[in-house]
Write a structure and sequence with these properties.
single chain, alpha+beta
Length: about 290
């Protein structure tokens, strides 16, 4: 009798957790994770070698820049200085290295970002040359589940149906919205208002950038909206991003300023639907056993 009860309960649990498995898209599990990303960026770089080109003013930075980012010309936000497209190659669990998503095997996760406006920029020079530091304001992003990968050969210039600062881009924004959000303020203790910080060689444009991201929408919002990342100002965010970038002939030929690679980290939680199904599984096991006994 006990054996039959356990078998019936196990069957009920298996059926319920089978539904749970289908609810967990791409096998995303709770806990720490890392998105490995590739990125093409259109950026404003021409701040010269002035110690302080502009400080705490988007308008002053617009005036100081010798040329604007290609993607801002004709855009809905002509004051934007950083915008681009990105693709997720892998999603892995940091703690054990398990793979939860592989590009091309589980589909394609492609995104677009824009609206980042430089409000401070300055240059420091030394034996290794000059480097520029910028702090930006604003910024939005969106990540889509697509049938194909992004196409960086389209370039950043605004054309029909394409505007990076409006998060419109052929082959990306037509997919299913997976996550969307904003760049969160607090990326640097030197400027608590900044949403994005970059440092790059003033001549080669090779450098690095960092940001914290806050999730506001998308089908997977309930999975990743956790406020587990803490910035230098003790603000909580959902995701942390670190990238390195450099100019390449292929990127330049398509109109981009740099090509980037990096990671986005955070923590995932079980989706509410998943937890509800787990509860139903446990509740269903009892009645199933009782019916078997009768």
């Amino acid at each position: 009798m006990l054996k039959s009860k356990l078998a019936t309960a196990a069957a009920a649990l298996a059926l319920s957790f089978g539904a749970i498995g289908s609810a967990q898209a791409m096998g995303i599990t709770a806990g720490d994770f890392k998105f490995t990303i590739d990125n093409y960026d259109s950026g404003t770089t021409g701040y010269g070698n002035a110690a302080v080109a502009c400080l705490n003013s988007v308008a002053a930075c617009d005036a100081a820049a010798s040329s604007k980012a290609p993607g801002s010309v004709g855009s809905v936000n002509t004051s934007a200085d950083t915008m681009g497209i990105f693709s997720i190659g892998l999603i892995t669990k940091i703690s054990d290295g398990s793979v939860m998503f592989t590009k091309g095997v589980d589909g394609y996760l492609t995104g677009v970002f824009g609206g980042l406006q430089d409000h401070s920029a300055g240059t420091a020079c030394g034996l290794g040359g000059c480097s520029t530091t910028t702090f930006s304001s604003g910024g939005t992003w969106a990540l889509f589940l697509n049938a194909v990968d992004y196409d960086p050969t389209l370039g950043p210039s605004v054309a029909a149906g394409k505007d990076l600062n409006a998060l419109l881009y052929p082959g990306i924004s037509g997919g299913t919205l997976w996550l969307s959000g904003v760049f969160g303020a607090g990326v640097s203790s030197a400027d608590p208002t900044a949403t994005y910080m970059s440092d790059f060689n003033s001549s080669s444009f090779a450098g690095q950038g960092k940001a914290f991201l806050d999730i506001t929408g998308g089908s997977m919002m309930g999975k990743f909206n956790t406020d587990q990342e803490i910035d230098p100002n003790n603000n909580k965010h959902d995701l942390a991003m670190d990238i390195t970038f450099k100019a390449t002939p292929a990127a330049t030929a398509s109109g981009w300023t740099v090509v980037s690679s990096g990671q986005i980290t955070g923590n995932a939680v079980p989706e509410p639907g998943t937890m509800a199904l787990a509860g139903l599984a446990l509740l269903g096991a009892g009645p199933a056993s009782r019916r078997r006994k009768s």
